Amino acid sequence: MAESTKKKKKGGRKKSDAEMEVKAEEASEQADVSEETTDQEAIAAESAGDETTDEGDNQVAAPKRPDPDWQKAEKPDLSLDERLQGLEEDQLRQMMKDMLLARRFEEKAAEAYALGKIGGFCHLYIGQEAVVTGAVHAQTPDDYVMTAYREHAHALQVGMEPGVVMAELFGKETGCSRGKGGSMHMFDKERNYLGGHGIVGGQVPLALGVAWAIKYRKEERVMQVYMGEAAVNQGAFHESLNMAALWGLPVVFIVENNRFGMGTAWERASSLYDISQKSKAYAMPGRVADGMDVLDMYRVTKEAVDRAREDSGPTLIEARTYRFVGHSMSDPVHGVYRTKEDVEEHKEQKDPIRLFADVLDEAGIVSQEELEEMDDEAKRISAESVEFADEAPDPEPSALYEDVYANEDVNGRLYFDGRERP
Ligand SMILES: Cc1ncc(C[n+]2csc(CCOP(=O)(O)OP(=O)(O)O)c2C)c(N)n1
Ligand SMILES: [Mg+2]
Fold first, then answer.
1. What is the mean pLDDT of residues 367-394?
2. Prediction pTM value
């Protein structure tokens, strides 16, 4: 991974410079064309599963890439009515609005990033919206949510104000972390949203602690913790699953398996391909959900949330999904680790918003016209969030010394704190 990370960083820097010059509306296409170096042959060889990682007797063939129905594994063949699970029409509409808002909000964030209004890291969730929307609809506002750094959609899904989230991205005083956290550090105590964590897998033991506290206080709440698939071969993940099962804690572990950890394909990084199977080592139920289908996410998560609340037992959910964008805003959309065709195919055939729109249309709940109205509303809210962030003040330089452990008297002054130097 180190090798490909190095290459990507180089490409990423070049692209950020170029990005500053393009018009805002060209932002998403820009990432698409920035990578001319795709080695199609290497990818084709890998896809065929004939890459070897060693010589002689120890030769190991990389596992084959997933079949096209990979995301649908274990999904039951349900009728339209069964798929809707008796959900109220209003809730189904809300799910659609939520996914549209997540998409349009992040498109606006991409534009703002290209214009240099957002600095630092910025990881978009475009393509994966069904995961958090379906899962959060399966719980109540009293329950907790914690995730990694690909988190804008999670923040919006728990009900954070889009303007406050955008202002945080802009590093403004009115952001949820007063502009000092940025993209990876959204937080909202009132909405039980516990971040926003930049260390891969770092949130998993923290969530375990929250679940332990829920049980200790005899509350009827549930902790939902999300992570990328690259987190699951870490020790902290396994220790957390073991303790969650041993102590019967009300936690749902949701692995957002988008098949890539930066530029490393899952099949090249893990001896066990099927992540849900990892639950077996800890005597915990493990489930696979179609992460491109909001209703399947709801179905699988609801069962897990109910079990957590009623029996105080954990579940591991592997949500199989796909990101339509680069790892972060400074990375190419496909690079050398996947093909442009792969990305295009997913966008055309598995877009979670399109798939859900078709279901709602077939059920006679949301017409094409109403869908367009919802989309316009999502665009309006997103544009307003940018206005709010644009107009918000920067934090005062003195804020550098607030909410931090470092003490000016002990650790000295920061030379860029805006005050005159002695
Ligand atoms: C402990 C740790 N190691 C490495 C990194 C660098 N890093 C940032 S994102 C990332 C890939 C994670 O991929 P995944 O968990 O699949 O999440 P995704 O980005 O696909 O959502 C890595 C290795 C990090 N942030 N933390
Ligand atoms: Mg991943």
1. 98
2. 0.86
